[in-house]
Design a protein that fits this description.
The chain is built from no helices and eleven strands. By secondary structure, the chain is mostly beta strands.
């Protein structure tokens, strides 16, 4: 099994920035595609961003293109989400996830095998 632990969430004003981190256990991190999802109260979990095993390919939800950047450091078993120009509608719990058998960086919840506990991001107006 793989354990994923998110950190870096908090309270920021609109227009500010946060950098989320997701640290993974194990020696096979580089074999997983990684994704970020978020979930607001009363809503379903939604795709935010994904990155391929090597980091050479990325995919983003339309709502965050140009504002968020996903990256990974396989030597440190860590994936990041840099969030700039934050908006109140970005407020949610953010989760990282790992896909053991990727073809592409998927936007679908059911393609992922391991999930972190989530970290809260709150953006005030």
């Amino acid at each position: 099994q793989v354990q994923l632990v998110e950190s870096g969430g908090g309270l920021v004003q609109a227009g500010g920035s946060l950098r989320l981190s997701c640290a993974a256990s194990g020696r096979t991190f580089s074999s997983y595609a990684m994704g970020w999802f978020h979930q607001a109260p009363g809503k379903e979990r939604e795709f935010v961003a994904a990155i391929s095993r090597s980091g050479g390919s990325t995919n983003y939800a339309d709502s965050v293109k140009g504002r968020f950047t996903i990256s990974r450091d396989n030597a440190k078993n860590t994936v990041y989400l840099q969030m700039n120009s934050l908006k109140p509608e970005d407020t949610a719990v953010y989760y990282c996830a790992a896909d053991r058998d990727p073809s592409l960086g998927s936007k679908y919840v059911y393609d992922y095998d391991y999930w972190g506990q989530g970290t809260q991001v709150t953006v005030s107006s």
